[in-house]
Each structure stands twice: as structure tokens, then as C-alpha cells.
Write a structure and sequence with these properties.
The complex is a heterotrimer of chains A (221), B (263) and C (240). With 221 residues, chain A is of the alpha+beta class. Chain A has 3 domains: 47 residues, OB fold (Dihydrolipoamide Acetyltransferase, E2P) (Beta Barrel); 74 residues, Nucleic acid-binding proteins (OB fold (Dihydrolipoamide Acetyltransferase, E2P)), CATH 2.40.50.140; 78 residues, Ribosomal Protein S8, Chain: A, domain 1 (2-Layer Sandwich), CATH 3.30.1370.10. Helices cover 20% and strands 36% of the residues of chain A. In chain A, strands 8-9-10-12-11 form a 5-stranded mixed β-barrel. A 4-stranded mixed β-sheet of chain A has the order 1-6-7-3, with no helix packed on it. A 3-stranded antiparallel β-sheet of chain A has the order 2-5-4, with no helix packed on it. The longest helix of chain A is centred in the C-terminal third of the chain and has 16 residues. The N and C termini of chain A lie far apart (45 Å). Chain B is 29% helix and 35% strand. The N and C termini of chain B lie far apart (42 Å). In chain B, strands 1, 2, 3, 4, 5 and 6 form a 6-stranded mixed β-sheet that branches. Chain B has a 4-stranded antiparallel β-sheet with strand order 10-9-11-12, with helices on both faces. In chain B, strands 7-8 form a two-stranded antiparallel sheet. By secondary structure, chain C is of the alpha+beta class. Chain C contains 4 helices and 9 strands, in the order ββββαβαββαββα. Chain C is globular and about 55 Å long. The chains are: A alpha+beta (221), B alpha+beta (263), C alpha+beta (240). Chains B and C meet through strand 3 and strand 6 of B and strand 3 and strand 5 of C.
Chain lengths: 221, 263, 240
Amino acid sequence: MSERKIVIPGEVIVSGSEYLPGEWTEKKGEEIIANRFGLAEEQDRLVKIIPISGAYQPRRGNVVIGEVVNMLSNGWFLDIDTPENAFLSLSEVPRYVNRGELNEVMDMHEIVVAKIFNIGKRGIDMTIRGHGLGKIEGGMIIKVNSNKVPRIIGKEGSMINLIKENTNCNITVGQNGIIWIKGDKVEDELHAKRAIEFITENFFKEGLTEKVKEWFGGNKE
Amino acid sequence: MDTGKLNADKIKQSLAEGKRFDGRKPEEFRKLIIEKNVSKKAEGSVRVRLGKTEVIVGVKMAVGTPYEDSANQGNLMVTAELLPLSSPRIELGKPGFSAIEVGRVVDRGIRESKLIDLEKLCIKEGEKVWTVFVDIYSINDDGNLLDAAGIGALAALKIAKVPKYDEENGKILYGEADRDLPLNDVNPIPVTVHKIGGFLIVDPTLEEEDVSETRVTIGGSKETISSMQKSESASLTREELEKAVEIAKGQWGELFKKVEKLI
Amino acid sequence: MAEGYVREDGRKNDELRSPIKADVGVVPNADGSAMFQIGKTIAIAAVYGPKKMHPQHSQDPEKGTLRCTYNMNSFSVEDRIRPGPSRRSTEISKITEWALNPVVMLEKYPNEVVDVHINIIQADAGTRCAGINAAAMALADAGIPMKELVSSISVGKMDKTLVLDLDKFEDSEFEDGEGSTDIPITFTHSGEITHIQLDGKISSEQLKEVVEMAKGACDKIYEIQKEALKKSLMAGEGEK
């Protein structure tokens, strides 16, 4: 299978005994069939579907952005846009926290960049031990469909760096589709927000990086 | 995660510089698109889009008995349904507009301005009159369902036609238009003004609506205010109320032009 | 059956109404959404989920739950329908759920729910079928894992003649001879029946023909659904 192609559920992607069914596909006889609307691609005979819509699939190692929605004596519950809230335990904070002073470290409705370190039967466990993780303040939060995140980041960060340079903003893109933009001026932050909106609207178009460069060219504020 | 509340400070900061997230000025409405006859079994129907907010409004007519204290007048009934399909919040029962509020505020705007000449909807005094039903459905909620609903109700009424009525057999001949709905020359349009961080804006997106502290809906046309309703808990100063009224008055004409184009 | 019922609108017995239109992504807030129109019947569907299911006691610990609601706008029909659920809409909600369940794969979402909301904007018979067609596209658009799509059509028997895709006159006003029998059917693309209902009377022989006719029609509808889904990506989302 040479090129990626858009498939709908039930469509035959390829046929041939050498192919193996990867994510969101199943094998029936010789045929690899799509089980989800998305972009089918083949690599080394493994055929899988890249979702382009739908809920965020949490994975171990994902760095996401979440909001504190509940606190217990031993940790915080974060809304990371999954059906079940994620839990950040006291022990996963890189400093000593007294049981009584959780809200001083992070209070209700504050925003945090955290990493998923375990997904188990009891839920999703988060950590903020690590570079770039922790509470964030100021700036602006936007939400995009998590499937668009790879495009917003671009190959080796090319797209997100383009936006950062052109807007003078710090941008953290959570794998869950929550994005934090921080600049010196509100205008810069709004500029970055619009750039990201432009990318999500033109998600499927060819030569998107060029289009974004052009967009910035004509869009100097 | 609802970004509105998280961005509250930013939204206010932006407003302090006279800007909104989508680049609009505080007194600017989003792009308004009105399509007519989207539901052809209705006596009149429109789809209204304000940015991404979308509502569909339909007018149906039926024959019934008049109320005792208005024996020679037709009846008006305005209902709104906030469909679960229009927002993930509706089933969760999250606060926001209630369907009842939308229905009542739009009703008030139409009724008090005397848009419909109810006496001309009398078939036989004391016995038979037309009832005009205005039903509003939300299709996508990106803020300001109320104004979209009010604009839709006005537009739908403007294009609605009274069906023929076979009095002998007591049968309504739907699909056979007899005459235009009898309307007076008023154009009540509701404009809801919201207060955020001390600033007044119109036509909020859902994000802005989430941080709105209080709002007042002012309906009317030209120089006359025909309805007003303040909702939510914070208060308005007298200056703010006056300013809100000025803002609303400034919008009626613009918004009505769009409705006019339809007819 | 050379003689027999001749259709009011001039269609052949095996001809679907026109226009048939489908559009995906019509409700920006939804996780997935679609519109399906056939003749004068217009349905929209919006999908939200998977998300946590409430109330807790309704949760299924083995897999996600599909929940459907069907609602007709008051002005979608000639005689206004009072807003709110009715026994008919409650029944159709359940029928829709049963028509879609066999193809959705919710094993990965225990204790969660996928909500499908269908709204009929304009009704001229065949509304439950239009709703199912819209719902199938909306589910795919929402990225819900599915074995395949389903497509739905109603076949009718007018006195003794079999016709495809009844319109309102045929469904409710035709009374000659044996009257009208309405048979809505939903097929998976690979040919399994996920929904069938019948109101009227028919022989088992004719029923076989009915099923044959329906599959042919569903294949046509499938092509329209597929195209609407694929096209929705190329258009880009800003253009609604």
C-alpha cells in the first residue's frame, strides 16, 4: 500500500496475506478492514488507522495539561479531558508537601502540565516530576481536538516553532489537545491562538507549513 | 474543561484594550446569516446563524378557542427547546439559559411590541380564533442563543402565511396560504448586553458567556423599548444600564436590515 | 404485477425520492454530526462521547453503552406536535439504538456512554430511517469504532404493489385495496439486518422481495454516506 488514504468503518484497506492488522483495524481472511473513520497507512506490512476525530486516548508518557477539579488529603484530581479524572499524588511532586497545605501548592481550578506515568484499573496516575512539568500561571488556554496535536507540533516541532517565533510566545501543547499560550502581550497570545485555529481548520490540506508561513506574512500585527 | 472560566482574566484584560478574542469590538455582533423556509411544513420557518450559534424557528398555526378576557383576539404561544444535540452541557444540567427563559423573553418581545395584530386573527368572536405557535430549537450553542432566538422569531413571523380555513368543515388547509400573517409595523429585536469585568459587550461566544457577570436583554425597535429583562446575580449601575440601552438601540437597526433582506 | 399502483409523484416502484443529500459536521459542538435528507424528509444527528455515564447504576462494566434519542420538531409536520417526548419518539429512540448497536464497538469504553441525538427538521415519512442514516455518519465522524456503517430505508406495499421509499401520502393516506404496509429496514453494508419493522400485511414471499429491494436501496444510500464522510475532511472545518 503506497499512499495513505481516508477510510470509513467497514472499508477494505488492503488485501493480502502478508499484511497485519494494526490499530483500529481487523483482519478478515486476507482483507484488512477499517474499524474507524480516519487515515489508513501501512508501514512494514502493518496497517493501522490514524484517527482524525474523536476522544483523546490517554497513553503512558503523554504530557498533558489539566485543571484541578478536586483535592484529597493525599493529592489532586485533574480534569485532563478524559471520561475519568486523573490523579496526581503528593508523592509525585518534586518537593515536600504537607498534607495540610495542598492548596498552597495547587488550588482548585489551577492549571498544571503533567505527565501520565501509569494507566491502570483504578485510573490514570500523573506526575509532575520532570522538566517542564508543574503548575502554570497566566497566559491563555485553548482546546483543540487531540488528533490535531501532531499537526500543530509538526515534524520535529517545525510547526509549533514557526508559531512561537512569529508570535513571541511560549506555547505548551498538551497531547490531550489542551494548549497553553503565554506571551508578553495579549495581542501576541491572540495571534498565536488564531494561528493554531488556522491549522486546525486546514488540517487536511497539502503544504500546510507553507500556508502558515504565508498566513503570518500577511498577518503582522 | 471549559476554557471560558480559565481565561477569565485574559478576557477582561483584552476587553480593557477594547478587544475580544475573536477580534470583534465590544459592540459588534458576529456574522448573522438567516435562511428562510428551512422546514416547509411550517407556516414560516428560518435558520439563524450568529457565528457558530445556530437556531431554527418555526411558526405553526391552529384554530382554537380564545381566552375569556380576549374573546376577539388570536393567541400567541412561544416555546423554546434547548436540544441536547446542541451542546454537551444540556444533559449535565449545567447552568446557562433555561429554555423557559428563552421562550418567555422572546414571547415578551413579540407580545409587548404588538407585532402580531391579534384581532385580525379572530375568526368568530368568543368561539374561534387562530393560535400562532412560535417554536424555537437550538442546534448549536456557541453563546447568545437568546438573541438568535429572538431574531429568528421575528424573521419567521415576517414570512409566515396564514393557511386557508374551511369554516364549514372546521378544517385547516395546511399548505394553501391564504394571506400574510397580520403584522404591525414594528420590528422587536432583542439585544442582550453582558457585563464582564466592568465592560459591556454584546453577542458573547460561549466562552465569554461563561464569564459574564450579569446580562440585560433589551428588546425594541427604532426609538421604543418594548421589553427588558435583567438576569443573573451581579448588579448594574445606572450608568451601565443607560449605556446598555444605548448599545441595544444601536444594534436594532443593523440587525433588522438582515431580517428585511429575507423578505 | 405489471398493473397496480402508480405512484403519485411519478416515481418508478424501485426509485428513491430525490434529492438525497448528506452532510457531515453540521453541529460544531458535537463530537460528530451529520444531516441526511431524502425527498422532503430531513434529519440531523449529533454524537457526544464516549464520556462517563450517569447515573452510575446504568453503567455497564463490560463495555460502553449506546444511548439514542429521537425528537421531531413541532413544525416538522402539518399538524403541530407538542414539544417534548411522546410514546412514538420513545419507541423510535429504542429502535434506533437497536439498529446501531450491532455495528458499534464499545468494548474499549466500559462505564462510558455514547449519546446519539436525532432531530427531525422536516418530516415526510421515513423519518426513522433518515435518522438512522444520519446517526451512522455522525458516529463515524465522532471517531467511534465501528465494524461498518448501517443504512436504512423503508419499503412499502401499496395494495399489492411493492414500492421503495414511501412518501407521506403513501405512508398515511393511501387506503385502496389492502391499504399500505410500511416496512422500514436497516442493513449493514455487508448485508446483515439490524432493524426491521412492519405495519400492515404481507406474504412471506413478498417479504423476501421487500428485503431484496431494501438491500439495493441501502447500497445506494451507503455510497452517499461514504462520500459525505470523506468529503467532510477535504472541505476543512472552517467552512460551515
